[in-house]
Amino acid sequence: MSRRADRHGRGRTLRGIAVSSGIAIGPAYVVDRRKQHIEPRDIERAETDEELARFEAALAETQSQLKTIEGRLPHGEHQQILRAQQLMLEDPDLAGRVAEIVLEELIGAECALARVADEIREMLEQADAEHFRERSTDITQLAERVLENLLGHEPQALRPPAGAVVIAHDLSPADTAEMVRSDIVGIVTAVGGITGHSAIIARSMELPAVVGVDDVDLVVARGDTVVLDAIHGVVLLRPSEVELEEWNEARRQYDEFEDQVQREHGLPAMTRCGQRVTLRANVALTEEVASSRFHGAEGVGLYRTEFLYMGRDSAPNEEEHYRHAKDVLRKMAPYPVVFRTFDLGSDKQTALLDYDSDAEANPAMGVRGLRLALTNREWFLSQLRGLLRAALHGPLRIMLPMVTSLPELKLALEVVDQARQQLEDDRLAYAQDVPVGMMVEVPSAALEAQRLARYVDFMSIGTNDLIQYTLAIDRENDDVAYLYRPLQSAILQLIQRVSEAGREAGIPVSLCGELAADPRYTWVLLGLGVTELSMHPSAIPVIKNIIRSSDYDDMVSLVREVLEVEDVDDAERLVLGKMRARFPEHLDHGGGQRLATEEQEPEQQEEESG
Ligand code: PEP
Ligand code: MG
Predict the structure, then answer these.
(1) What CATH number does the domain containing 229 carry?
(2) Cα distance between residue 24 and residue 18, in whole Å
């Protein structure tokens, strides 16, 4: 992370990952959760019983605090994360290891606990999967809370004033309980990634947020003015009068544009010439369903069910899938919800899989997605049965991830039939006519789309993976991110091929990768024949506004031109040039971090603001 020093020798421009778009300006409210230094305290052997009893009491006190906080949270994944923390506390290994150190080394429980927390954290931080690394913060937060109770301190309450930008090393789910009631304007954290707690909290609260800003909690003082550009992932500290004025103006324009496009949320996504497009939401948490409705989504086009398997000690059973899906359908009624069956493995790990990173040299090409479901029939059948039953309560669709061939698809469809048959045998009510579709996210599936389309009720193109596999660029590896060029002819041809296959088979073809939310590509994707786009909810109004201001013929002729050009440089010049000229405000408004690299080199941007 680069940082320029101002005349006081401290960097004023910090960079991180924008995880929830927007601009926020306000005084910093720094959450000080720095690790307490615990001096080892020697105890007598006769005192060990009392010491361990004190530790048990602190554990019980922590459990009861977490339960109280859980009760204050709206139902959903934050609650699940809190429950997972409670389970961690119950883990006999944790208490056992602390007791072992106290008894063997005759030192106080505080020091023993700090040591055990460090051991667990180190183990998790060395894990390959991002998910595990992120969960290492859970153990830190838990240990700190137990420590506070051992030391007899009152838990530190989080009371940010209205209008504040919260700055923290990380935010725990427990912090959320206090934050959902406050009137803060933005969040910046030192650690975390796209799927971390802080990012999830920020997105469900629709607050601008930047995470992964190294040491931000150490370099910002409470009360410092902070400008948060969560479109490009930049944090500006202590702005000058002139900068403040400029940023206030930028925020005003951002909010005004947001209001303007949001006003169309009830209008159809239809081009000026009458071509209808369906815009749906990509959702991973029940909390995001309300935001999907607010932004005008006509249903959920991709429900990522992987979160149901995270932060817990056993896989969800049929009943839980049923109740969860029923709840989502009720919240989204009368619109349809496409539940993707679990796409676990590779970049979406869960502790439940007991994943051994040494066993797979190429996890993206390993046992993941549908392959995992076909080898773990028990989980797959539970989910399918739950979904088929929930479909009695609303327009539910089932989508299979990572299909790579027809035999694999047929096998998965057989398992769906098996789930139906089991429900029949068990005399459980379920919906007979649930549409079953597939994701097209592997080149082989795109190339064979014509054949595959005959077996499914819909297709959805997952460009995140399709681009990864077609261009051989690991989506998790920053060093090859520069090769992510969606306008490369290979990608355009595959999207076109799938759209045509869908049209021939008379089934809808949607696109649900990150590309769908990027205003630079709206014309190209629709011009290639895609009729539905599914994206992060807050991106919908901007994309809808582009569609409503466009003519379908212009999209088709742009595609015709772009397919003619020789290389991707020319394709980008053509498409990005045209879109920028036509929709400058839309392109400045969203599209996430990638817009920053397109329009300004980071160094240049720092020169300007730092
Ligand atoms: C995709 O691959 O484009 C997609 C939508 O699925 P995910 O990002 O969850 O892998
Ligand atoms: Mg995918």
Answers:
(1) 3.50.30.10
(2) 12
pTM tops 0.85: no
Q: What is the mean pLDDT of residues 375-390?
A: 97
Nearest residue by C-alpha to atom 7 in ligand 1: 464
Residue 487 has φ and ψ, to the nearest 5°, of -85, 5
> Does residue 475 carry a pLDDT above 90?
no
- Domain range for residue 81? 45-150
Number of domains in the chain: 3
Q: Exposed e or buried b for every residue in 416-433, given b needs 16+ CB within 10 A?
A: beebbebbeeeeeebbee
Flag whether pLDDT at 70 surpasses 80.
no
Q: Are residues 274 and 399 in the same domain?
A: yes
Looking at the chain, the whole-number percentage of residues with pLDDT higher than 90 is 55
Could you give the residue numbers annotated as active site? Answer: 197, 512
Distance separating alpha carbons of residues 428 and 58, to the nearest angstrom:
46
Ligand nearest the Cα of residue 402 is: 2
Q: Which atom of ligand 1 is the closest one to the Cα of 302? A: 5
The span from the CA of 328 to the CA of 75, in Å, is 12
Reported as a single tens digit per residue, the pLDDT across 396-449 is 999 999 999 999 999 999 999 999 999 999 999 999 999 999 999 999 999 999
B/e letters for 391-407, b = 16+ CB within 10 Å, e = fewer, are: bebbbbbbbbbbbbeee
Residues 19 and 161 in one domain: yes
pLDDT of residue 512: 96
Which of 441, 469, 535 has the most ligand 1 atoms within 8 A of CB, as the residue to mutate? 441
Residues 113 and 187 in one domain: no
Ligand 2 midpoint to CA 465 (Å)? 5
In a domain, 586, yes or no: yes
* 123/207 same-domain check: no
Query: Does residue 602 form part of some domain?
Result: no
Tell me: do 78 and 201 sit in the same domain: no
Q: Which residues line ligand 1 (CB under 6 A)?
A: 302, 304, 343, 441, 462-465, 512-513
Q: At what angle do helices 130-150 and 77-90 cross, to 10 degrees?
A: 60
